Amino acid sequence: MFGRLAPPDLNVLVLRDTDLAARGIRQALAEATPGERPGLERAAALVEQAAAASDAELRARWVHERLAAAGHEGPVDSVHAIKALRGTTPGLSLRQAVRLTKDAAAHRP
User: Which superkingdom heads the taxonomic lineage of this protein's source (predicted)?
Assistant: First the structure.
């Protein structure tokens, strides 16, 4: 139809492997000596915190990291940010980059 654009496709896959890390830490904690327990308990808490992050937060973190690596220091949802993001990510469409940067602006790290 004229005047209507299709909803933007976003083909970004968020991978989570915190369950594997948590399982390994729990196993180590079960076998830990009293001196090892505090460090492993802290590690378990950090893994739980990472697992609680939403997909939107993970995508925003990814965008912020890519822009920082590209040397971009301005607003995350600016034209320069979109260009920098696309420069660091071959194959990322303009539509995807715009959506990712807008979402990243809403989720500051």
Answer: Bacteria
